[in-house]
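One chain is below:
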Amino acid sequence: MHIAEVTTLLQKLEKGDITWEQALVEVTSLPNVWQTKEWKQKRQVLIGNFCAVCKITEGPFVLQHLFHCDSFKEICQTVKEELRIQLLPFIREKVTAADVADHVGAGEKRLACPTCGSISLRERKTMYPPYLCQKKGCPMPMFETPVSVRYYLKQKTTDRLEAMNIALPFLLSVAMVTELRKYDNAIQHEATLRSLRQSLEYRSLKHTATYCKICAFKEDLPAIERKEHAQFMQELR
């Protein structure tokens, strides 16, 4: 079942004797664990004579895995999210009010409806009053003289406070992405460690139970449906 090989890789990676790239290359070069003779023999020993769910005593029975390894991509996302939470206080201090104000800018001068403040206007050449507000629900859509406002193009609003509130999370997100890139190698390293540990848990066969085939199918159905959905979405792309 190559438990010794995976354990050695994990120990080497923990000590820094190999890189996460080397560990991944070596572990993925191992044969599928379920194809090994030792795995098949151990499974046969562990399979009981009744289903742990429905208690039926008539077989055939299978060894159901109650622990499943996450994909390497999923583990990376988990590690990244944990790091994101740790970095958030630092990022919030890094993005200042002055940064937000600079991003929002002074705004562009635009003509707006004096009633609702919308800049969506139409000037009529032959009708009076000459201006028509095109915002749906404006209580007084027709007027003679528009007002001058500042329009913040990036945030698509004439309200400076609203523009600042929209700009802040955007700048925090940009700063977070930039900061996370500095930790790419550390994220991959930690994800590889976790992946190897999960692999050892799975290979140990400690988290298993005897199921009848019907109960095993019911247990695996959500994962099967998720996989089929993912394949369907991939084909659509």
Remarks:
- The chain has two domains: 3-92+183-236, 106-177.
